[in-house]
Fold:
Amino acid sequence: MSLTVTWFLLLGAALFSIGVAGVLIRRNALVMFMSIELMLNAVTLTFVAVSKDLGLIEGQVAAVFVMVVAAAEVTIGLAIIVAVFRTRSSANVDELAEMKG
Amino acid sequence: MTDLLWLVVALPLLGAVINLLFGKRIGEPISGWLAFGFVAISWAIAVPATLSFVTGSGHTETIYLFSWIPAIGVDAAILWDPLSALMTMIVTGIGSLIHLYSIGYMRGDERYPRFFAFMNLFIASMMILVLAANYAVMFVGWELVGLSSYLLISFWFTKPSAAAAGKKAFIVNRIGDWGFIVALMIIFISFGTFDFHTVFASAPTAITVGTATAITLLLFVGAAGKSAQLPLHIWLPDAMEGPTPVSALIHAATMVTAGVFMIARSAVLFEMAPVAGAIVAVVGTATALLAALIAISQTDIKKVLAYSTISQLGYMVLGVGVGAYTAGIFHLTTHAFFKALLFLGAGSVIHAMADEQDMRKMGGLRKNMPITFITMGAAWLAISGIFPFSGFWSKDEILAATFAKGGGFILLWGVGLLVALLTAFYMTRLFVMTFLGKPRWSGDVQPHESPATMTIPLVVLGFFTVSVGLINTPVRLAFEHFLESSFEGVAHIEALTFGSFSILATVALVVAVVGIAWAWPKYNTDELPAEDGKFWQRSLLAFGVDEIYGRTIVAPGKKASEWAADSMDPKVIDGAAHGIGRGISGFGSVLGKMQTGQVRGYAGVLAVAGAILIIVFVVVGGGF
Amino acid sequence: MAETIVFIIFAAVALVGAIGMVTASNSVYSAMGLLTTMFSLAVMYLLLDAPFVAVVQVIIYAGAVMTLFLFVIMMIGVDKSDAYGAQLPIQRAMTAVVAAGFFAAVALAGRAVWVTGSSAFGRPNLYGSAEAVADEIFGTWTVVFLSIVMLLTIAAIGTIALAYFHLGSTEEEASR
Structure:
C-alpha cells in the first residue's frame, strides 16, 4: 500500500474538522485560538500535499506565506486576548457579548 | 542645445511655485524681477535652439522626458520644430517684456507676488501647450492656460465685474474644451495614440475624409473657445477686467494664439477636410467683420483693443482656414508684437490718466507721453496695414492666399478688405482721440510719462513692430522657409506671381489709407463727432450677442437650477436619501436581533455554511 | 512501505494531539496537544519532500507561536471554569455533528476533485529545498513577500499599540 496524496488530504480534513469542533465547543478564547491555528495548519498541510502531487513549488511558497500570516495573526490575537483579560479578568468569550444587537 | 529645453517649461513653473510659497517674504519688487528673470532665462535657453533652425543646422526632434500614462502609451515629450520654436520665442520673448512692464505697472498692488506667480504659471502652461509632442500633453497645457487666464482675469476678484469676467472666460472656454475633448477621443479611437508624429503620418491612410472633418470641426470648436471666434468670442472683451498686462499677455503672446496654433499644428488633418477648412475660413471672416464693426464704436480704449484682437484673430483663423498656415502664423507673430505694444501703450496711458479708460476724456496726450505716443503710433500703422510696417505684410499674405483660392473665397477676400478698412478706421479713431486734438481730461489729472520699466518694453516692442514684417516679404520668404519643415506634407498654395501680389497689396494699402483718411479729420477736431445713430448704439452694445445668450441660455439655465434647488432637491433627492436611510435602519434593527454576541454561535453558523457551500460546489461541479 | 508506516504513526499522533487539545480541561494541556500535532505535521512535510517548510513549521509554530501561547497562558492564569466537561451534552452532540458533517463535506469534495486514483505522487522530482523556495519567493512572488513584510510590521505596531493603550482606558492614561 503506497502513500498517495489522498491520505494527506484526509488527514488535513480531519484536523480541520477537529479545529472547527474546538472553536465551537470551547469557551476559552485561548483554546479557541489554538483551534484556529490547528485549522491553519491543516490547510498548510493540504497546500504542501497538493504541491507535491502537482509538482509545483508554489504550494510550498503558499504554505510559508500562510505560516507568516498566522504568526502575525497570533501576535495580534494574543495581544487582544491579553488586553481583554486585563479589563475583564476573564478569557471566556461567552462573557464578551457587548456587540449584542 | 535641445537637452535643456525642458527648462523652458520648468523655470516659469518654478517661478510660480516660489512666488506662491515665498512671495510675501520676498516682497515687492524683487518677486517681480524674479518672475521676469525666470521667463527671460527660458527665452535665453530657447534662443540658440531656435537659431539653429534659422541657420539650417537644426532639425525637428522629439525630446522624451518621462512616461506619463504608460497604459495608453502617452509620454511627456517635447516636440521641437520650427513652429514650436517660433511660438516659444513669442511666448517667452513677449512674455518676459510684459513681465518687465508689470514690475512697474503693478507697483503697490497688495497681491503683487501672487500676480507674478500667476503670470509665470500662465507662461508655463502656454509652454506646455506649445511644446507638447502629443494631444494629451497639449490638452494639459490647454486646460492650464484656461485656469491661469481665469486666475488672472479675476485677479482683482473683489470687484464683482472682474470675478464675473473670470467666470465667463472660464465657462466659455469650457464649451470650447468640450469640442477639443471629443476630438481627442475620436483621434484616440481612430489612431490608438495621441502622438502628433504618428497621427499626422498615418492620417491620410488611417481615417476617412468624414472622420477628418469631424475631428477638425471639433478641434475648431476648441480653437474657437480659446481664440475667441464666433460664437464663443464673448469672453474676450470682458477679460479686460484683468490688469492691463494680463490683457496684453492674453491677447498677444498666450491664450488666444493657442487656438490658431492648434489648428496650424493639426494642419495635416485640416488639409484632409476641405469642408472644415472652408467653415473655419468663413467663421474667421465673420468674426473679423463683426468684431471690427463693434470696435468702431467703443469708447473704452481697452475695449477697442479687445475687439480689434478678436478681429485680427479672425484674420488668422481665415488664414489657417484657407490653408495658408504660414500666413496665419506669420500674422500671429506680427500681431503678437503690435498688439502687445498697443496694450502696454494703452496701459501706460491708463496709468498716466489715473485709471481713466474712456477715450472721450483723453486727447492731446502726445506732449505728455512722447515715448508712448511714438511707439503706439508704430503699432497703429502696423495694425492698419501701412507699408512697410509688420501688419501690412502679414495681413496681405492672408488676403492674397484667400484670393488665390478663388471661387467663393473671393467673397471672403472682399470681406477681409472691408475689415481692413474698418480696422484702419477704428485704430485711427483710437489713436487720434487719445493722443491728438485738445486735452479733454479734467484739471486735476496730471498725465506723465511712465517709468523706465514700462517704457523699455514699449520701445523694444516698437522696434519689432516696425521691422518684424520684413522677415517675410514676397521678395524674401525667410519666414515661410523657416516654418517649412513644420508643415511638411501639407499642400502648398500656389504662390501668386509677384505682379498680382503687388496689385493685391496695393489695393489693401489703398483701403487702409482710405480708412485712415476717413477717420483722421473726423476725430482730429475740437468737438468729438456725435456717434448716436442706430448703428452706433447697436455697435456699442456689441450687437447684443451677450444679451441673446443671456436670454436664450443663461436665463433658462438659471430657471432650471432654481427648479432643481427648490423642488427637485428637497423633494426627490432628499426624499430618496431619507427613505433609503429609514429603510436601512429598519432593516438593520431586524438584523440586529440576530447578533447574539455569542462568538461561538457565529462560528457555528460559519462552519455549517462552509460545509453547505462545499457540498453545493461539489454538486454543481458534477462531483456526484 | 516505510513511508506509509511513518505516515500512519504520525497521522495518529497528530489526531490524538488535536483531539487532546480540544478536549483538555487545562489550557496548558491544550497547548501541549497542539504542539504534538505541529511536530507531527513537520514530519508530514518531510514525507512530502518539503524540508524547508518542515523547518519553518518547527521554528515558527513549535518555537515562536507555541512559546507565545504558553507565555500568555501563564500570564492570564489557567482558567478551568471552561473545562470541556462543563459543557451541556446537547452542545457536545451538536458540535460533533457539525464537525463530522464538515469532515464529510471536505472528504467528499476531496474525493470528487482531488482523489482521482493516482497511485503515487505525480511528479516525484519536486524537492522543496530552502533554495528552491527562496527562488520562487524572491522571484515570482516578490510583491506578495513585500506585502507580507508590511503585514508583519503592521502586526508588530498593532501589538505594541494594544499593549500600550489599555482597553477602556481614558485619554489621559493613553497619552501618558
Summary: Chain C touches chain B through 14 residues (CB under 8 Å). The CA atoms of residues 6 and 47 of chain C lie 8 Å apart.
